[in-house]
Design goal:
The protein is an alpha+beta fold. Helix content is 43%, strand content 13%. It contains nine helices and six strands; from the N terminus they run E-E-E-H-H-H-H-H-H-E-E-E-H-H-H. Strands 1-5-4-6 form a four-stranded antiparallel beta sheet. A two-stranded antiparallel ribbon has the order 2-3. The chain is globular. The two termini are 22 Å apart.
Length: 241
């Protein structure tokens, strides 16, 4: 995958309820084998659809998770139906080795494997009432961006200024450094061999029912449900990987 295909902004770094024991298995846990047919599956949420209200409403969650995310899973499985050697691996591995995917389905896989991986992380890093930022990731953000506030401000700026559909990311890049940037559509940081530890969906389907065109209001509200405890676990796991 050519890096020019990405809309990436930001700077390269220099230096509960939802806790997951192994954060890097968030995606792989949804890859199951049934009756010799390998397929990816929609992850179950660890909270109710209305648990993030008033910040993210129940109806949006029902459609976003049950329709949009399910749609990515269905299209990915359909695209890989003839390629069991590809579908029999984690979603991270599939994306990180996108060059091995046949050209006739490559863009479909980029779109839908990305959609599956991106949303799986998204659900896992939200929790009712949020969690405070602390731990190793807080230390790294302070060292990398100058302050926690500067890091958050850069992330929010990327999310608000993303043109059209896409995501804002906090990742551990291929040099084991924190980085903040945006990607278009469902492009995943895994395509760059980066490990996303926090992602914000700024597609209109993520907020339009409640916020209409007020993306900034949605982004501000989302900050109240970020599970920074999980983000810290993701960071620690990514640095050890």
């Amino acid at each position: 995958m050519n890096r020019r295909n990405f809309l990436i902004t930001g700077s390269t770094a220099i230096a509960g309820i939802l806790a997951v024991k192994n954060p890097l298995s968030l995606y792989a846990d949804q890859h199951e084998a049934h009756d010799h047919t390998h397929s990816y599956e929609l992850p179950k949420l660890r909270y109710a659809y209305d648990a993030l209200e008033p910040h993210i409403d129940k109806r949006t969650m029902e459609i976003h998770h049950g329709k949009h995310h399910q749609g990515y899973v269905n299209k990915l499985n359909a695209a890989l139906a003839k390629y069991h050697d590809l579908s029999d691996q984690s979603i991270e591995s599939l994306l990180r080795n996108i060059g091995k995917v046949p050209k006739d389905i490559m863009q479909t896989v980029v779109n839908n494997a990305g959609g599956h991986a991106n949303h799986t992380l998204f659900w896992s890093t939200m929790i009712p009432n949020g969690r405070q930022l602390s731990g190793k990731v807080a230390e790294a953000m302070q060292a990398t961006f100058g302050s926690i506030d500067k890091a958050k401000e850069q992330f929010v700026t990327i999310a608000k200024s993303q043109f059209g559909s896409g995501w804002a990311w906090l990742v551990v890049n291929d040099k084991k450094k924190l980085q903040i940037y945006g990607t278009k559509n469902q492009d995943s940081p895994h395509l760059l061999k980066h490990t996303p530890i926090l992602g914000l969906d700024v597609w209109e389907h993520a907020y339009y029912l409640k916020y209409q065109n007020r993306r900034a209001d949605y982004i501000n509200a989302w900050q109240n449900v970020v599970n920074w405890k999980q983000v810290n676990l993701n960071y620690v796991a990514a640095m050890k990987a």
